[in-house]
Amino acid sequence: MDVVVNARKSEVPDELRELVRAKVARVVKRAPVLEKADVKLGQDPDAPVSSNRVCEIKVTGHGHTLRARAGAHDLLVAADMAVEKVEHQVERLKGKLMARTHPRRTKVEARS
C-alpha cells in the first residue's frame, strides 16, 4: 500500500503526517484491491473558521476510486472524519466484491 501525504500551501508537522499515513494505511489494508492513497491536508479560505482545515483522501486501485473530504477546526479532527468516510466506503466495496464472487444461495437452490 502506497500512502502519500501532501500539504497545500502550508507545512504539516511530521508527527501529524505519520499519524494520518498510519490511519489511512490501516483502513485501506482491509481491501487488497486498493493500491494507492493520496492524502491532501490544507486550508479552505472560503470556509467558515469552524471548518477551514480540510483533509481530502483519494484511494485508487484495480479500477476503483474512493474519495472523501472533511473539514474541521483542526487538521487531526478533519483527518479522522475523512478516514471514517473512507472506512465506510471500503466496507461497501468489500461487500460488493464478496457478493460478486460468493453469491447467496436461495432456499430453492439449497434443497436441490
Number of strand elements = 4
Largest sheet: 4 strands, mixed
Using only CA atoms, what is the Rg? 18 Å
Total domains: 1
Which second-level CATH architecture applies?
2-Layer Sandwich
Bin the helical content: 40-55%
* Percent of sequence in beta strands: 25-35%
Compressed to H and E, one letter per element, the order equals EHEEEHH
With strands numbered from the N-terminus, the spatial order across the biggest sheet is 1-2-3-4
The number of helices is 3
Low-confidence stretches: none
CATH superfamily: Ribosome hibernation promotion factor-like
CATH fold description: Double Stranded RNA Binding Domain
Quick tags:
single chain, 112 residues, alpha+beta, Double Stranded RNA Binding Domain, four-stranded mixed β-sheet, 3 helices, 42% helix, 29% strand, elongated
How is the secondary structure organized here?
Blueprint: E1 2-7, H1 14-28, E2 36-43, E3 53-61, E4 64-72, H2 75-101, H3 107-111
Parallel strand pairs: 1-2
Antiparallel strand pairs: 2-3, 3-4
Short account of what is shown:
With 112 residues, the chain is of the alpha+beta class. Helices cover 42% and strands 29% of the residues. The chain is built from three helices and four strands; from the N terminus they run βαβββαα.
